[in-house]
Amino acid sequence: MNVALNSAQPSVIVRQQIPENHGVRSFSYSKNTLGYVEQGSKILYQGDRFVTVLAGEVFHLDSGVHFIENCPASAEVPYSEILFFYSTHELRNLPFQVIPPATEDHPCVRCSRYKTLCTYPAWPMLEAFFHSTGAYVQHNAHLSHPQLSHLKLCELVHLLLGHPSCCVAHSLRRALRERPLSPVIDVLRDHILKPASIERLARACEMTPSRFSRQVRRELDTTPLHWLQGQRMEHGRFLLMTTDRSVADISRECLFSAPSLFIRSFRNRYRLTPAAYRATHQFRPKPAATLGIDEPTPAES
Residue 252 CA to chain centroid, in angstroms? Predict the structure, then answer.
């Protein structure tokens, strides 16, 4: 499942409830995400590891493709969360000037092992903020007054940056330090699981193909199609680890013209065939109540 948001739009607030566990899904975000789990738990996968966000915890995701499983607390209690989608540009232009100094020293195992996602338990004031925001969104006040979403984002960022030990605040400081990526990266991310030619990608950026390719090489030090193939292979690798879908089905989702081409490309990249990789790397999460940060559970023999 892919969720695309226009990075030019202002911040967006979403409150969603999910009554059933639909398994692991891919979400493509062109904006960064600040979220709070109200009920249930959220499993965020990265490489061969995963992080579980429990009820009452806040999390941050950078823009890009993420593999996520939303788990209801029970058959009677759906999964529930509040999400803020924002751009780095918007973060830099919030109406306040005093930002706590960004420190490189953040002695946290979580942040050192996971570069693009982090979680942290909400404290009473932050919990009160999300509870009030839930009621605010439930009555659709943000839809008739879009500027209010921006003000709520400002309030949230103030609360997070005012808590120096918060891992999510560390992610915000990192976002403020980093040089913004150009729009061509958003276009590439939006086409990871969509058919894409250089001409089509360049047209989406209102560039010539040669200018588009040069810009991508400056940003990512590789060609557009090589970067896309790497992202698609990573998507296929993840599906092999976390699902029982056939190699043919996975190859189609990853936009390979034939399973044989996917198998050959996979072996060249990971030094194993898809079947052999699945046999040695497939895992399922342990019960959420036992999780914080975890290594994969080997597949049962």
Answer: 23
Per-residue confidence band for 190, with pLDDT thresholds at 50, 70 and 90 = confident
Question: Residue 109 corresponds to which tokens in the numbers above?
Answer: 């195992």
DSSP 3-state assignment of 169? helix
Helix axes 274-281, 259-270, angle to 10 degrees: 60
**Dist CA 57 CA 135 (whole Å):** 18
Q: DSSP letter at 9?
A: S
80-94, 144-158, 181-195, 239-253: range with highest mean pLDDT: 239-253
Q: How far apart are CA 294 and CA 299, in angstroms?
A: 15
Residue 2 has pLDDT above 70, yes or no: no
Whether the Cβ atoms of residue 268 and residue 233 lie closer than 8 Å to each other = no
**H-state helical runs in the chain:** 88-92, 109-113, 124-138, 141-144, 147-161, 167-177, 183-190, 198-204, 209-220, 224-242, 247-253, 259-270, 274-281
- HSE-CB at 60 with a 13 A cutoff on CA atoms is 26
Task: Dig out the tokens for 134 from the structure.
Answer: 């839930």
Nearest Cα neighbor of 16 from 137, 157, 153, 150 is 137
